[in-house]
C-alpha cells in the first residue's frame, strides 16, 4: 500500500483507520494495535513500537488526546500537542498508522474502537496500568494480547520532565 509511505497519510481518523484495518484483514494481513501518550519520544517508546511491529505487518497506534493526558498526568501535560506527537510518530518507519483519539474516552469507547478495528494483536507491556482492560478487549475482539517489552526504568516522559525541571 503505497500511501502508507506518505507521512501525512499515516494519520487517520478512527473511521478511516477502521476501514483500512478491515481492508488489510481481508487481504490476509496482520494488524497490530498499540497505544499510548508518546509525549516526549524516548528509547523506551521506540523499543516498544519496534517489538510490536515484529508481530505483524501493519502497526496501528492509538494516540491519546491532550485532554486525556491532562486527566491522567496533570495540568502541565502533555508537553507536546497531539498534533505534534502524531507528526513525530508518522516519521517513524515502524509506525504505519496513527489514530489520534478524541477527548477523554471511557472504557466503553475504547472497547467499541477495538471491536471495530479488530486487530490480530494488541501490543502491551507487563507494567501497563490498563493491562486488565486490554486483556478483556483482546478476549472480546478475538485478538491476542502480546507483551512486547518491559517498562524501562527511569525512561518515562514524566521522569524526563522532572529531570528537566531540576536543571532549569
Structure report:
The structure is a single chain. This protein has one domain (about 1-165): HUPs (Rossmann fold), CATH 3.40.50.620. The model has no long low-confidence stretch (mean pLDDT about 90). The longest helix has 13 residues, at about 15-25. The chain is of the alpha/beta class and about 170 residues long. It has helices at about 15-25, 45-55, 65-75, 80-90, 105-115, 130-140, 155-165; strands spanning about 30-35, 60-65, 95-100, 120-125, 145. The protein is globular and about 40 Å long. Helix 5 crosses helix 6. It has a 5-stranded parallel beta sheet with strand order 3-2-1-4-5, sandwiched between helices.
Distance between the termini: 46 Å
Summed up, the helix count is 7
| Tally of individual domains | 1
Shape: globular
CATH architectural group: 3-Layer(aba) Sandwich
User: How is the main sheet built?
Assistant: 5 strands, parallel
CATH top level class name: Alpha Beta
- Order of SSEs: HEHEHHEHEHEH
Number of strands: 5
Keywords:
168 residues, alpha/beta, Rossmann fold, five-stranded parallel sheet, 7 helices, 5 strands, 14% strand
Which secondary structure elements does this structure contain, and how are they paired or packed?
Layout: H1 14-26, E1 31-36, H2 43-53, E2 58-63, H3 66-73, H4 82-90, E3 97-100, H5 107-117, E4 121-124, H6 131-141, E5 144-147, H7 157-167
Parallel strand pairs: 1-2, 1-4, 2-3, 4-5
